[in-house]
Design goal:
The protein is mainly α. Helix content is 49%, strand content 7%. Strands 1-4 form a two-stranded antiparallel sheet.
C-alpha cells in the first residue's frame, strides 16, 4: 500500500467515488429533486465532499480487513473482491458513514432531510432496505475502477510463511 495517500490522490478518489454514485443513483431513478447529493462535485455540499474524502482515506483500512492492499507497482495480478468480501466491506463502510453522520449531528429519521439533519439510513445494517445496502455494495464493487483513476489497484497480501 502506498505509505500515505496524497491529498491529490484522495481528492481524485473522492471525485471518482462521487461520479460513480451519481451514475448509479441516476440509473436507479433518483434525481436532484429526490436526492440533493446528485449534483456535480463543485456544487456538492462541503459535508458530502468531506465524507467522500473520508471514504477515500479509509480504503486502505477496509482492504486490509480482507487481506488486500493498494499498489502502484506492476507485476502482481489485481485482486478481484469476492461477493462475501464486498458484503463485509459494505457493512464496514456503512458503519464508517453512520459514525461520521452521527458525529456531525445527524439523527435517524423517516425521510432524508438535510436541513433537519435526519436520514432514514442511520440505522444498523440489518435494518437497512436492500436499496440502501446496494448503495454501499455498488461502491465496493466499483472500487477497482475508482482506484484506477489514481493509478492504484488492489492486490492480495502474500500469505505468511509458516515455519
Amino acid at each position: 500500500m502506498p505509505d500515505i495517500l496524497s491529498e491529490t490522490t484522495i481528492d481524485d478518489l473522492a471525485r471518482a467515488v462521487h461520479d460513480h454514485y451519481l451514475r448509479t443513483r441516476r440509473a436507479a431513478g433518483d434525481d436532484e429533486t429526490t436526492n440533493a447529493s446528485l449534483v456535480a462535485w463543485d456544487r456538492l455540499p462541503r459535508l458530502l465532499r468531506a465524507d467522500s474524502r473520508a471514504h477515500a482515506r479509509d480504503v486502505p483500512r477496509k482492504l486490509a480487513i480482507v487481506g488486500c492492499r493498494l499498489t502502484r507497482r506492476p507485476g502482481r495480478p489485481a485482486a478481484v473482491l469476492t461477493e462475501g468480501e464486498v458484503e463485509r466491506l459494505a457493512r464496514v463502510e456503512h458503519v464508517r458513514w453512520t459514525l461520521a453522520r452521527l458525529a456531525a449531528g445527524w439523527r435517524p429519521g423517516p425521510v432524508h432531510d438535510a436541513a433537519a439533519r435526519r436520514h432514514p439510513d442511520l440505522v444498523p445494517w440489518e435494518d437497512l432496505t436492500e436499496d440502501a445496502r446496494d448503495k454501499d455494495r455498488s461502491t465496493l464493487r466499483a472500487l477497482p475502477a475508482v482506484l484506477a483513476v489514481a493509478g492504484l489497484r488492489i492486490v492480495r497480501n502474500p500469505a505468511e510463511t509458516v515455519l
